[in-house]
Specification:
- Helix content is 38%, strand content 14%.
- With 111 residues, the chain is of the alpha+beta class.
- The chain has 2 domains: 1-67, no CATH class; 70-111, no CATH class.
- The strands form 2 sheets. Strands 1-2 form a two-stranded antiparallel ribbon. The chain has a two-stranded antiparallel ribbon with strand order 3-4.
- The longest helix is centred in the middle third of the chain and has 10 residues, at 37-46.
- It is elongated and about 60 Å long.
- Bound molecules: zinc ion (ZN).
- Zinc ion binds at residues 74, 76, 84, 86, 105-106, 108-109.
């Protein structure tokens, strides 16, 4: 059970108050999501992870993408067993990053 009061949140939205969450930013454009009263309660209880999942984003991959500043890296494994640190693309949107990161080769490795 949530300790928050859905009735109050509904009344606030009926009165024209908008509940908007923003995330991302920095190297990419911010995403804005408007929440329904039920979603406001979910957000208050569970935090940003809840909103990310609403958007079809796994919190872990969001974290990794943020930490990489949107840089997608090469998929080549080097002789020393480490992954190549060269970038394939920078400042990617999350969708582009998911498509490119460790799925393409850099110029050195034939990309
Ligand atoms: Zn490479």
């Amino acid at each position: 059970m949530s300790g928050y009061d859905l009735r109050t949140v509904k009344a606030m939205q009926d009165a024209g108050l908008v509940a908007e969450v923003r995330f991302g930013g920095g190297f990419c454009s911010q995403r804005r999501v408007q929440l329904t009263p039920d979603q406001v309660i979910g957000y208050l209880d569970q935090g940003l992870d809840y909103v990310l999942r609403l958007q079809g984003i796994e919190p872990d991959e969001f974290e990794e993408w943020q930490q990489a500043d949107g840089r997608a890296l090469c998929m080549e494994t080097l002789k020393n067993g480490k992954l190549c640190g060269n970038q394939v693309a920078s400042q990617c949107s999350l969708d582009d990053w998911k498509r490119l990161h460790r799925n393409e080769y850099c110029r050195t490795h034939g990309g």
